[in-house]
Amino acid sequence: SALSQQLKDLESFQVIAHRGASGHAPESSMAALELAHAWGADYLELDIQMTSDGELVAFHDDTLERTSNGEGHINDHTLAELKDLDAGSWFNDAHPELADSAFEGAHILTLEEVFNRFGTDARYYLETKSPDLNPGVEEGLVRRLEAYDMIETGRVLIQSFDQESLLKIHELNPDIPLIQLVWYSPGDEDPERREEWTGVTPGPERITDEDFQAVADYAVGLGTNAYYEGEAMIDEGFVRQAQQNDLAVHVYTINDPEEMQQLIDWGVNGLFTDYPDRLIELTE
Ligand code: G3P
Ligand code: CA
Questions:
Q1: Predicted ipTM?
Q2: CATH of the domain at 235
Q3: How many angstroms separate the alpha carbon of residue 276 from the centre of ligand 1?
Q4: Distance in Å, CA 61 to ligand 2 centroid
Q5: Does the beta carbon of 159 lie inside 6 Å of ligand 1?
Q6: Catalytic residue list contains 60
Q7: DSSP states of 116-148 as a string?
Q8: Across the chain, where does the E strand assignment appear?
Q9: Nearest to residue 84, comparing CAs of 105, 62, 67?
Q10: Ligand nearest to the CA of 253
Q11: Which atom number of ligand 1 is nearest to the Cα of residue 250?
Q12: Which superkingdom is the protein from (predicted)?
């Protein structure tokens, strides 16, 4: 089936366009998705949040200020309110050398708009972002994936840092392949960063087969950082060990070609990048 082909494909290398080609156009905008799609990225990555009237939208931050002219929490707003915002001009201000008047007034996209545009002609790597702030996002997401026939056709992966959110999705539809996101920094003694570790990331010690197996119970892969402040946090042994425990290894968010090459050499199964063009060039 298409779904089993998708799982097989995860063994080979996947180019994951982080918020679209967000190094070139406003993140999560149609322009960023169009570029990534045209360049042939394997997956379009988007963070999914819920509006106050229950619509699903693609937006990374919990608050509107950084990437739009709105204010406050995204989930305190109706879709109609969000549709009035300009989610593109900030990019022109932040990156004058990449500015394009076409980006002005870019709209925050609903998941349906993305599916209506690319349909089953693309693959989607969707994150339940801040599920505590978006209660019901899992049900809403699974319902829409089913309605758009994205599961059996092998078009979607769902990722989250929140293990509970992934387990909810697994219960709603056990056929959806899941990716557990982790922040990995072995030896890290900083108590604040320890707080941030997700339930499946072991304390400061090295990750064990049991840790990997606990994730492999419900997920097909791990999405992990590889570097922290320029220092490598994982190595080839980590990648092999995860793969031996039936987990694909995807690394976020890699924009530097030297880091891309190192991770490819370690045998990772894919990279999240703001520059899918760079990664495609490297892997061709
Ligand atoms: O989803 C992988 C990576 O995107 C996680 O970090 O903050 O960019 O969503 P973030
Ligand atoms: Ca993400």
A1: 0.98
A2: 3.20.20.190
A3: 15
A4: 10
A5: yes
A6: yes
A7: HHHGGGS-EEEEE-STTTSTTHHHHHHHHHHHT
A8: 14-18, 43-50, 56-58, 124-128, 156-160, 178-182, 221-224, 227-228, 231-232, 248-251, 270-273
A9: 105
A10: 1
A11: 2
A12: Bacteria
Q: Please enumerate, as own/partner, the contacts of 229-233 that have beta carbons within 8 Å and a separation of 24 or more.
A: 232/262, 233/184, 233/185, 233/186
Contact 29, 2 (CB under 8 A): no
Q: How far is CA 224 from CA 54, 63, 97, 130, 138, in A?
A: 30, 24, 31, 17, 22
Q: Are 220 and 178 in contact (CB under 8 A)?
A: yes
CA-closest residue to ligand 1 atom 2: 252
Predicted TM-score (pTM) of the model is 0.95
Per-residue pLDDT of the chain (284 residues; tens, 9 = 90+): 999 999 999 999 999 999 999 999 999 999 999 999 999 999 999 999 999 999 999 999 999 999 999 999 999 999 999 999 999 999 999 999 999 999 999 999 999 999 999 999 999 999 999 999 999 999 999 999 999 999 999 999 999 999 999 999 999 999 999 999 988 877 666 655 554 544 444 444 667 888 899 999 999 999 999 998 788 888 999 999 999 999 999 999 999 999 999 999 999 999 999 999 999 999 98
- Which residue's alpha carbon is nearest to atom 10 within ligand 1? 60
252 Cα to the center of ligand 1, angstroms = 7
Surface-to-core class of residue 124, CB atoms within 10 Å of its CB (0-12 exposed, 13-18 middle, 19+ buried): buried
Tally the domains of the chain. 1
Handedness of CA 78, 83, 85, 89 (dihedral sign): positive
Domain span holding position 14 = 2-283
Q: Which ligand is nearest to the CA of 250?
A: 1
